[in-house]
Amino acid sequence: MTLAIALSSVLSALVLVLALVLPSINSPTVPFGVRVPAQRADDPTVVRQTRIYRWRVLVSGIVAGGVGVVIYGVTGETLLLPLSVLVLVGVWYSCFFLAHHEIRAAKAAGGWYEGLHQGIAVDTGLRTDRPRFPWLWLAPALIVTVATVVIGVIRYPSMPEMLAVHYGANGVPNRLAAKSVGTAFSLVFVQIGVTALLVGIAVAIFFRSRPDIDPARPVGSARWHRQYMSLGAKALLGLVAMIDVGMLGSSLLMWTGTVTVWAKLVVVLPILAAVVVAVVVLARNNRERDEGEEDTGLTHRDDDKYWRGGLFYINRDDQALLVPRRFGLGWTANFGNPRAAMLLAGVVALIGLLITLRFGG
To answer: What is the pTM of this model?
Structure first.
């Protein structure tokens, strides 16, 4: 019970901290997913809604976490702990939508874009002089995956005839299955699927994403996008490697028949550490730096009509598969692109597999 509460508390704390700091990390010209001119970034409505949003998130987050722990203490249902994290995420986005609505209403009422020269900047060099994809960063994930397969093949003859395929909250196996190639290597198949999917997303970021270049300072903005794109791909490949380490540890527990209350940590800790590092690195570099470039006098075009609720990008005329997020870190899919459905299906399938093979519950 203590371990389950500790893991849930850490995840809830990470979600809460990220929710609180995101308004300071994201571009000031898209507060809460609303495109605004640079001179309106510090408008009283934006400042007020940012403050209200943080108070709402903090109070509701503490309440949601406390209620989850109390209910878990009464019922003992481990499923309620991850559900409390999901509730916290739901509360977070509810607070986001409230702030988004108020800022968008103020923007429309105040005519924030009236009389401004809107423009679009394009980095044509991304087709002819694209940065090199960091393939070397894929090596750790491939090495761990190959090592998992080799270890599994070597150990297969000596594996127990009954393999633990699911663990309870106390680290004791609560589901066994007869040894077979499909059973013994089930997590290896997931490991390979995770690696292929996330590497595919990293490649899509490099070759199928569209930069959101600031027309006021196009040269510096384009340079920053190239650096952030490379950094995002490296962070994702590093995360893949740590997921594979977690899967290796989980497979070893199955293959050796090890029973321990720390079974969950074998999987969770490497992944959690990688997520924290990736979030910190991306957050520190999520804003363009003003390098003294002369302002062109142009401002971003008002493209809110393509963003549903400031979160979901739907533009059938845009061939890009991925675009920078309006609120959050990294990229989001262009849901107007039919190939985005294939990407989403792959992610959903992966999540389904992980839930099916999860530890706990």
So the answer is: 0.81
